[in-house]
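Key result, reporting period 2: structure in, sequence out.
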């Protein structure tokens, strides 16, 4: 993939890392050194970032393997500073399929969290749950494990927020589609996604003072609108030509920090 380095493959799916990903561990290391965490803390913070993105890859593999079950292949998974991106060949139009594919990713994080709890108790590493922003804790194995556990729990909760096109938003659209049809469900889910994006952006701007949260909110807004337009374009094409096709369009919905890129092409 352009501007990306291939790390390997899993289940026949290429895993890539974009060059901008290198900025994230560098920023974490410099931030922790600046806050007095020391070299050990900085190294632990970088290890923590790689561990989180390892979880992101597993999250995206959950989506990808669920999609494969329904005959939808995945071209690649790419790591970006905002998370993982899985390039599915096409989006499911069956609401039950979309529901399963959307839930598969967060379900992987649930299993990871459960595994970390078992490992932690087996080796006595879960005596105290540390906060994910407790940088000094990254210098110890116990701190890293606890922070990774908390992060996976947060990822499950955040991904299931019904802000389309995040996983929770896709679940919401799938459930609506069973009642009112794919197009109307997409419009409603996209509108709810925009409302929640405004709320997330406002919280990040005025309360959390987090530029990353503001960028993520903007990404949710833009990606949701892209996919809403895609749904209308596909609906208009199918109604006008009577063919089952897909317009050539690229939709990049975020998965907080886990997202997916859907590349679907109209048959020539």
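The corresponding designed sequence is given below.
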């Amino acid at each position: 993939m352009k501007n990306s380095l291939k790390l390997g493959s899993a289940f026949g799916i290429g895993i890539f890392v974009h060059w901008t990903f290198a900025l994230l561990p560098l920023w974490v290391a410099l931030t922790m050194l600046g806050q007095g965490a020391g070299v050990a803390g900085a190294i632990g913070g970088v290890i923590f970032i790689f561990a989180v993105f390892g979880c992101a890859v597993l999250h995206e593999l959950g989506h990808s393997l669920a999609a494969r079950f329904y005959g939808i292949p995945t071209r690649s998974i790419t790591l970006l500073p905002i998370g993982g991106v899985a390039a599915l060949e096409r989006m499911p139009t069956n609401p039950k399929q979309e529901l399963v594919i959307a839930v598969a990713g967060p379900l992987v994080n649930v299993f990871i969290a459960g595994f970390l709890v078992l490992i932690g108790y087996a080796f006595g590493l879960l005596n105290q749950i540390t906060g994910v922003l407790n940088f000094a804790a990254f210098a110890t194995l116990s701190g890293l494990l606890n922070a990774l556990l908390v992060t996976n729990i947060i990822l499950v909760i955040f991904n299931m927020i019904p802000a389309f096109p995040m996983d929770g938003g896709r679940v919401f659209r799938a459930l609506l589609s069973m009642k009112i049809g794919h197009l109307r469900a997409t419009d409603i889910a996209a509108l709810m996604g925009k409302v929640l994006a405004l709320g997330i952006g406002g919280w990040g701007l005025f309360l959390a003072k987090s530029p990353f949260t503001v960028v993520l909110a903007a990404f949710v807004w833009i990606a949701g609108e892209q996919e809403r337009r895609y749904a209308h374009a596909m609906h208009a094409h199918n109604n006008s030509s009577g063919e089952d096709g897909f317009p050539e369009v690229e939709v990049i919905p975020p998965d907080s920090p886990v997202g997916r890129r859907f590349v679907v092409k109209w048959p020539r």
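Residues 38-69 form the longest helix (32 residues). Confidence is low (pLDDT under 50) at residues 243-268. This case is discussed further under Risks and Mitigation.
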